[in-house]
Amino acid sequence: MTPTIGVFDSGFGGLTVLRALVARFPHARFVFLGDTARLPYGSKSRRTIARYAAQSAQFLVNQQGAEFLVIACNTASALALDAIQEAVTVPVLGVIEPGAAAARAASRTGDVLVIATDATVQSHAYSAACRAQGLRALEKACPLLVPLVEEGWTGPSVSGTAGGASAPPQMAVTAEVIRIYLAELTAEAAAEGLNPDTLVLGCTHYPLLRPLIERAVPAGMRVIDSAEATADVVARRFGPQEAEKHSPAAQLRCFATDSVEKFERLGSRFLNRPTGKVELVDLGG
Amino acid sequence: MTPTIGVFDSGFGGLTVLRALVARFPHARFVFLGDTARLPYGSKSRRTIARYAAQSAQFLVNQQGAEFLVIACNTASALALDAIQEAVTVPVLGVIEPGAAAARAASRTGDVLVIATDATVQSHAYSAACRAQGLRALEKACPLLVPLVEEGWTGPSVSGTAGGASAPPQMAVTAEVIRIYLAELTAEAAAEGLNPDTLVLGCTHYPLLRPLIERAVPAGMRVIDSAEATADVVARRFGPQEAEKHSPAAQLRCFATDSVEKFERLGSRFLNRPTGKVELVDLGG
Q1: Count of other CB atoms within 10 angstroms of residue B184
Q2: For B5-94+231-280, CATH number?
Q3: pLDDT tens for residues B152-211?
Q4: CATH 3.40.50.1860 spans which residues of chain A?
Q5: How far apart are the first and last CA of chain B?
Q6: Nearest CA in chain A to B150
Q7: B112: phi then psi, degrees, rounded to nearest 5
Q8: Is the pLDDT of residue A149 over 90?
Q9: How far does A266 lie from chain B, in Å, by closest CA?
Q10: Which residues, in sequence order, are bridge partners of residue A199?
């Protein structure tokens, strides 16, 4: 029996984790909360992040009946997992350890690269999680990738382009930005004597860039998506969900603390289906 | 006699306005406050922005002795100028009206384009200010430009490049992003029957992109920088500052409510000289 799964993010990027979970549990009940009024978490102190994340977790568990909680936010996973686990009585899973564990399973050389936001890199949470898995990790902040995803410059369906087989100029920009970042990162890895064979996508926005990133990495390099890795851990925990006759489709309720319009507009691309009506919730200051 | 000039922004982009002011008043005393703990203002309600901006203005006036206040923040200028004027007893100038007035002086067709952040465009403050000047304005949000500036992908001195005469790939990306945005904007202007001859840079980060933007606009189009236009208004108000014998150089104190490290690291590029030690100040929640 799959429990009601609560998914929390500071914004709506965590919808890529929800998408990966829905693919594995197509008949479960999900509640998602984006604390959009108080983002970005990345520039705030650990104490403030812990307070916000604990409030958000309590909303999902105490008011929405979540029986299992996924923290689909790298910053909160890095800085507030303990605080969230103390704040609620249900099991809590972050995105960083599953990403590191999947990297260990994928890597033969033991050297991995991690791309993420500035805040996640500064926390060095992926380095620490990789070290705990016996891996050496080199992290790089790629601050342009989130705004490129939010602009929709990720594929041939961006606005203002004719579509078709040729890459529109917007997608070419994103591909070039990825090429520059990866060239800098692999050059730095070589300078440090690393021999990386695995790249971890350490930001919940990056799954939307996966096709472009896979084209840009050196031949033979594996790409690990923390969102997929996290959903795999949940799937292993609860086993495959068997569809009974007349099983209902996954039920999904999305909440946000602000910016419902942007959430609904961009969220469906992250979730790969409509978010439905996003409900506004006030968690206080 | 030039007064002590207080300059306020939600972040450090307003340092481009301070730079323009220092160029005109090389012997004045300046105090700058970046409310970095509470940015971005753009996603917050008008009431919250008004409260934050009023607190910040009172700090500059009551605690730092500012006798004239420049709101070097488009969002606060658009949404909180009245609230700031009520909160302090000194004259207050925003960046939007000077930008619109400079556009009127520059434009012969009466049609102008405005590029800005998403929040500034959504406020339609430039449209309103241009309309008050008898201009028709078409605004466009360019969300990638601020992160490109903050990454330093604006010129040949970015890290990881050999420099020299050829444009590094990072600068080529920024030039291409500008080309795409301006192509979309001029196509939209043509579709609406406008004949624009002036482009207003409605974001305090954009002066760092001015050389690239000037290369990208259609021949004959004037580029108006709100930061320069605002400093011009202040200069006209107080007249040219005459250097007396042994006049001291401009005195400058910078305050921030958080993220002093990023402020010091990036701020000197915006200010075109070192910010000096940025002092942390707590304005409360």
Answers
A1: 15
A2: 3.40.50.1860
A3: 999 765 444 444 445 699 999 999 999 999 999 999 999 999 999 999 999 999 999 999
A4: 5-94+242-280, 97-226
A5: 37
A6: A143
A7: -130, 155
A8: yes
A9: 14
A10: A113, A223
Distance CA B140, CA B74 (A): 14
Task: Please answer whether residues A171 and B171 qualify as being in contact, where contact means their C-beta atoms are separated by less than 8 angstroms.
Answer: no
Tell me the sheet residues that pair with B49. none
Q: Mutual orientation of helices B125-132 and B96-106 as an angle, nearest 10°?
A: 50
**CA-to-CA separations, B189 to A95, B52, B198, B220, in angstroms, rounded:** 45, 36, 12, 16
Is the pLDDT at A43 greater than 80? The verdict is no
| CATH number of the structural domain A97-226 | 3.40.50.1860
Chain B positions touching chain A (beta carbons under 8 Å): 36-37, 39, 43, 143-144, 147-148, 150-151, 153, 160, 169-170, 172-173, 176-177, 180, 184, 258-259, 285
Residues of B in Cβ contact (< 8 Å) with A42: none
Q: How far is B144 from chain A (nearest CA, A)?
A: 6
Residue length, chain B? 285
Which chain B residues touch A151 with a CB distance below 8 Å?
143-144
Q: For B221-280, write each residue's pLDDT tens digit.
A: 999 999 999 999 999 999 876 666 667 788 999 999 987 888 888 899 999 989 989 999
Q: Please tell me the predicted confidence (pLDDT) of residue A40.
A: 80
Q: Where are the alpha helices (DSSP H) in A107-259?
A: 118-123, 125-132, 145-151, 169-191, 210-216, 226-238
Give the 3-state secondary structure of residue B118: helix
pTM of the full structure: 0.91
Question: Quick one: which of A185, A20, A152 has its CA closest to A95?
Answer: A20
Residues B89, B61 contacting (CB under 8 angstroms): yes
Section B25-51 average pLDDT:
88
pLDDT number for residue B2? 78
* Residue numbers in B near A179 (CB within 8 A): 169
**Two tokens, residue B202:** 């409605």
* A279 burial via Cβ count (<10 Å: 0-12, 13-18, 19+): exposed
- Using one digit for the tens of pLDDT, what is the confidence trace for B108-167? 999 999 999 988 999 999 999 999 999 999 999 999 999 999 999 997 654 444 444 456
Residue B249 · residue B20 · CB < 8 Å: no
pLDDT at B35: 93
- Banded model confidence at residue A163, pLDDT cuts 50, 70, 90: very low
Residue limits of CATH 3.40.50.1860 in chain B: 5-94+231-280, 97-226
Query: What is the architecture, at CATH level 2, of domain A5-94+242-280?
Result: 3-Layer(aba) Sandwich (3.40)
A130, A142, A203, A254: which is the annotated catalytic residue? A203
- Decide if A143 and B160 are in contact by the 8 Å CB cutoff: no
